User: What shape does this take?
Amino acid sequence: MSDDLLDLATSVVSRARPGEGMEVYVARGTDTEVRAYDGEVESLTSADSSGVGIRVVVDAPGEGSRVGFAWAGSLDRALIDAALHDARDNARFATPDPDVVLAEDDGVEATELDLWDDGVASTPMEKKVALAVDLERATRAADPRVRQVSSADYGDSQVEVALASTTGLASSRRRTSAFLSVDAIAGEAAESQTGTGFSVGRGPGELVPDDAMDEAVLRAVRLLGATKARSAHYTVVFDPRVVSTLLAVVAAALSGEAVVKGRSFFAGRIGEAVAASGVTLVDDPTDPRSYGAATYDGEGLACRRNVLIADGVLRMFVYDTVSARRAGTVSTGSAVRGGYAGTPSAGCRALVLSPGAKSSDEILASAGEGLYVQSITGVHSGVNTVSGDFSVGAEGLMISGGNLAQPVREVTVASTLQRMLQSVVDVGADLRWLPGAAAGQTVAIADMSLSGE
Amino acid sequence: MGPVPRGRLGVGGTLGHDDYDTAVTETALIESEVLERVLSAALGGGGDMAEVFAEDSATSGAMLDDGRIEELSSGRSRGAGIRVVDGETTGFAHTADLTEAGLLAAARAAASVARDGGAGVRTVALTSVASNGRGERTAPDTVAKDRKLELLGRADDAARAAGSAITQVQVGCGDSRRRILIANSDGRLATDEQIRTRFNVSCVANGDTGMQTGYEPVARTEGFEIFERFAVEDVARTAAGRALSKLSARPAPSGEVPIVLAGGSGGILFHEACGHGLEADHIVKDASVYTGRVGQLVASPLVTLVDDGTVLGEWGNFAVDDEGNAPARNVLIEDGVLTDYMWDWLRARKEGRKSSGNGRRQSYQHLPMVRMTNTYLLAGPEDPDEIVAQTPAGVYVKKLGGGQVNTATGDFVFGTTEAYLIENGRITEPLRDANLIGNGPEVLRRIDAVAGDFDMTPGTCGKDGQSVPVGCGQATLRITGVTLGGTA
Assistant: This one.
């Protein structure tokens, strides 16, 4: 698989000069996106893209090595040549560093994963169009309180990646994904409430349009009549989608690179109880159910299962090769990169909180009184993984007598990440695999500040 | 973690180019005759409009982190996106192959949405409608790399010198040169060359109460001459000071409080509270609280809000938008009354009007949509110090971070990165970061004072998966009550 890409990567690496280290990352993707509106196709996008990212490492005798990077958004020979030239030139200016090296095979065996669904390529465009158009129509008709469906989208992608290096690494991998998503607006006259629903899979055959529709409609409709709540301290129960978002944010503080550079509230706390007992957080890209699953990491090392927090105790951070050397340890196979235009850095790709025993209803019942949060806003402006300060906009429903009650909007929930981890009272059994770097399930956290009226 | 060893930043010798073609192409991206044939082919199966958007861009970036020049990167991207509009349906395809064969293949893919099965041969004749010409700019790729790196080192030194509690400094600079060409079947042919330069510093300060962060960016649609406008040391000291001041910060209050936003604190308030909601794509779908409200009072009479892509050098400035239209100064709200929305070609056509020059896209791989440019509140008559003095209790926000809005409900959040309590009309204790939450039309009605100390700040606006550079501007103003999401 991806043999022509690996051949290309290898052929560029073969041009390395004596004493020069080189890593070549090549990617190619095909994307389809159909947007439906008002019973018609609003837009249909089909596109291929490809590119290369080259890292060059040169010796600075006695001082370590210097690294330079360049990329090209094309596999055109002239642009690859230009990128190789630029990477070499850029390497001349980096500060020499004894920890700057390319990854080398560490003997960890790769987990072969089947992340490819032929259905993405073989499903006719008419069928993909119909999925989006039908979802839009069905959502409009699902509930008389839905007054608008601002968009319904079908999307899929096929991605192939190859990596080769002068240190002898050579790997290729490929994956597909498909999704349906729909945005519903409920309400009349002065009031509008919104809900997004989606369904994801490796291919169109795994998508369940009714799930996306039901989720969007439920979320919009149950907020009708929402008001601000009174400012107070509450137990907050987060929806699985919110938990996925929050875990992906906390991941930044578990990056060994952030830790070694003193930019994580977890720094220096290995072996300490950083979370409530029962909280176990694992980054496991070898689980094919995760949308972050991968056989190889962004430097070509085998991905592996890393237990970061075990029963509340911080066990380890994730590292790429360079951050691991700086920390005096070894890579955890956790190099991530933002496509061909990005350089590798340490990061999580498949976080999962070990599920507890309770259903979401049982968690609400245990909470008794509190706030159920179905969506949050302002994550990027309100969550700081250096200080741990946490403040986000929220909408959802009050919890009264262990049941969902009055809808709430235009409030914030706040705490610190440190305190939130210590205050986890329940982790649900309802694990949901979601796109992005983390799965999610219902989680209850005690004693958060709700700011409203 | 010492300062950067200055002597190792560069190596000897000249920095000239060799025989690789690493510079952005200087000749036409695609010849006119080729464009005309591709546009004709794109409409070969029917459709109302076809467009070729070609782009050739070069970016470079450098990062000094943890006392080291860690990474220099360079990138090149070249390609074209082709769209065909047939009725309410748009087909879009893009390619990195700018040969006629590559463009024709993309045109056929984009044309697959056309349904009338062939409207006969449509001849397209292109006329150039816009030219660029914005004075001398120092293109980033003509500046030696060690000159840029020297700026990073100076900023690192200045940030670390700001206080012994500064434990970490990251300095980034980057620039881009983007040539675009837009040709459409209405005969429009437009080009632009957009040069942008950014410089930013982020710091970590460590104290008894934990760590705090400070960040300060500078970014303009200019070349290397941007560094004549400001000293990198000042940017570094601002970022460091922000982190240091928060070491003694107390938790922000929770609940509704009067807020004084400092001039140039971000302007993100208007970007979120009404900017996105005034984008016509949300309006035509009735997915904005501002739908159907032109002519109505939607804000305090003190509010006159403008979106203006013509402000030379600002981060959201350009000579033509990504649909080939000239930018304009568009008054959106005048004395509190909603006057108009922002429009791209597609949404303007639906209403039988012209684009307002707000059709933008992240790259040739993206469809254009309605986007803001430089969005700002016109300055008012008050004195900024007097506004604070006449606020018995509240919160003074010196700097804002990002924000987010739900255009359909109007609810929005925006975060503080430097804020203080106001007690008895005086700015007192620093506060930890928090988000503010409000509803657009409600918050805009609560603005009761606007000062004259106007300033702009740069930002990156994300919408539907696409990022574009924008500017935000405002003078010191007061909002009588907004919900602050603290813990105290």
Notes: The mean pLDDT of chain A is 96. The first strand of chain A starts at residue 20 and ends at 37. Chain A touches chain B through 86 residues (CB under 8 Å). Residues 161 and 173 of chain A are 5 Å apart (CA to CA).
